[in-house]
Amino acid sequence: MSAPFGSSLFAPRYRPFWLLGVVVLALIAYAIYWFARLAEFKETVQALAGGRGPVDVVAEDISYGGFPYRLSATFTNVTVKRAGKDYTLTVTAPELVIERQPWRGTLHLGFFQTPKLTLAAPALAGGVQLTGTGTEGRFSLFLKNGNVERLSTVLDNARISGGPWLETPLVAEKLELHGREVAAMRARQPLPNAGEQAEGPGASPTPPTFLEVIVNGEKVQWGEGEPLTLMASLGITGEPQADAIGQSYLDAWRDAGGTLEVHSLTLTAGKDDLVIAKATLALDDQRQLLAGGTLTTPCPAMLAGLFGQTLEGAPEGRVQGLISLPFQARDGKLTLSQPQTEWPSPARNRDARCPDLRR
Fold first, then answer.
1. What is the predicted pLDDT for the residue at 199?
2. With contact defined as beta carbons under 8 Å apart, do 281 and 262 qualify?
3. Total domain count, the chain
């Protein structure tokens, strides 16, 4: 007696065809899913190109692709601009690629070819005009619950110049910038031993940190100076939602007590720490930078000479250990003060030189 027709389809000799059919259906279903995500991705990109996003994007051409693992948009001869009341940030490049995974809309990756960045802030510090270039740039943006969990940017063969601080260009083989919002620290914290009080005399005079920034640089040179490694940890304090209606954001941020905290900034040559900085920066009523902090170094005379100053009694060359020098900055001029301790003795190793940080 022969087997029923339906059951014969499941016979061993037909199983490869069933498996092939399942694979084909799965591929068709995934292709439908991918093209649906691509349509959403295109809407986001076209909103940016139409000026309906946080930045304005203008490009000669935009093409899409990335199947099957990525959603990709390639911009040709692109200009990305972010303009506020106080500043204009512009990025131009022959090519920009932005991509993300179809199933992960919170992480975006980007790649620039020979980017050029320009920051213009005419109302800040008497007029800021900085230009940065590189052979290649990369960035990643990770969003979480509407906040920037991480924004990382890497620029290869970077060169930054412009006034008022970098008339002598700063160059680096690789420059990295990593930032993240700190939502958990947005509430003003009380001072130690102040109980639960978070306002009034017992409250910290510094507003909470709402943005943390890490800067790393490899083979960083000021002009033709000694190649150094740069590591910096920064924090921006204040009220991230400061009311700027009727005034500039810089003024609103300043009036809310905003500061830039340099938790640490280290310049090293090999394993040798040449400069360790800690400081607080703020704006005065004229939007000029104010700063105060300490610079710690084994080469005090060299460091003072870097800013066109001399320190009474400072040993020439390297000293034993490190010495901390208080400093203040006002009206664009940095002033070093005498140390609060006695000058250390000169280094015993006469071959230990103090490098030229700027040439």
1. 44
2. yes
3. 1
Q: Is 12 helix (H, G, I), strand (E, B) or coil?
A: helix
Report whether 42 contacts 64 (CB < 8 A).
yes
Paired tokens of 225: 């100076």
49: left (phi over 0), alpha (psi -120 to 50) or beta: alpha
- Determine the Cα–Cα distance for residues 157 and 136; give it in Å rounded to an integer: 8
Distance, in Å, from the CA atom of 274 to the CA atom of 357, rounded to the nearest integer, reads: 9
- Domain containing 70: what range? 56-336
Q: How far apart are CA 40 and CA 269, in angstroms?
A: 49
Is 15 within the bounds of a domain? no
Residue 280 included in any domain: yes
Alpha-carbon span 66 to 73, nearest angstrom = 8
Give the per-residue pLDDT at 257: 87
Q: What residues contact residue 229 under an 8 Å CB cut-off, 6+ apart? A: 217, 218, 219, 220, 267, 268, 269
CB 296 within 8 A of CB 325: yes
CA angle 154, 137, 49 (to 5 degrees): 120
- The verdict on residue 51 lying in a domain is no
| CA angle 164–330–248, rounded 5-degree value | 70
DSSP reduced 3-state for 55: coil
Identify the segments of the chain with pLDDT beneath 70.
Answer: 1-15, 146-147, 183-206, 240-247, 350-351, 359
* Residue 327 tokens, joined: 């400093």
Residues 234-286 pLDDT 10s? 999 987 665 555 567 888 888 888 999 999 999 998 888 999 999 999 999 88
At position 50, the amino acid (one-letter code) is G
pLDDT in the model for residue 82: 87
pLDDT at 235: 94
Task: Kindly report the number of other CB atoms within 10 A of residue 168's CB atom.
Answer: 13
The distance in angstroms from the start CA to the end CA of the chain is: 98
Tokens read off for 252:
């609103």
In a domain, 1, yes or no: no
The C-alpha angle 17, 22, 28, rounded to 5 degrees, equals: 125
Structure confidence by residue, pLDDT tens digits, 299-311: 999 999 888 889 9
The Cα–Cα gap between 15 and 9 comes to: 8
Q: How far apart are CA 303 and CA 163, in angstroms?
A: 21
